[in-house]
Amino acid sequence: MLNYSVLMSVYKYDNSKFVELAIESVLNQTLKTKDYVIVVDGPIDGQLQDVIHRYEKEYSEISSFYLDKNHGLSYALNYGLTKCKYEYIARM
């Protein structure tokens, strides 16, 4: 079976409900990932923080990494690439 990472970036203007739906979508795929990397690009609100923490606590394959300030999507994704465990990476 193929091992792959999933890479996702979130930032302060992301809707927490949409982030939750995105996480659920990945978790419900037929071919499951063992490495789900979420990069938090700068400070976020409590609601979005709660969603990420809840899933990270419940699913061991989810890891979140925090950038001190918003650097932009390309920077956040490039940073996230360094945290992925597998050669194949699905961008969420």
Task: Give the helix/strand layout.
Elements: E1 5-10, H1 16-27, E2 35-41, H2 46-58, E3 62-67, H3 73-81, E4 89-91
Helix pairs in contact: 1-2
Give structural notes.
Helix content is 37%, strand content 24%. It is of the alpha/beta class and 92 residues long. It has a four-stranded parallel beta sheet with strand order 3-2-1-4, sandwiched between helices. α1 runs parallel beside α2. The longest helix has 13 residues. The two termini are 21 Å apart. The mean pLDDT is 97.
- Poorly predicted regions: none
Give me the number of helical elements: 3
- Output the radius of gyration: 12 Å
Oligomer: single chain
E-strand count: 4
> Distance N terminus to C terminus?
21 Å
- Structural category is alpha/beta
Main sheet attributes: strand count, strand direction, barrel closure: 4 strands, parallel
Q: What portion of the residues fall into strands of 2 or more residues? A: 15-25%
For the residues shown, what is the average pLDDT? Answer: 97
What order do the SSEs take from the amino end to the carboxyl end, as H and E? EHEHEHE
Percent helix, as a range, is 25-40%
Order of strands in the sheet with most strands: 3-2-1-4
Report the principal-axis shape.
globular
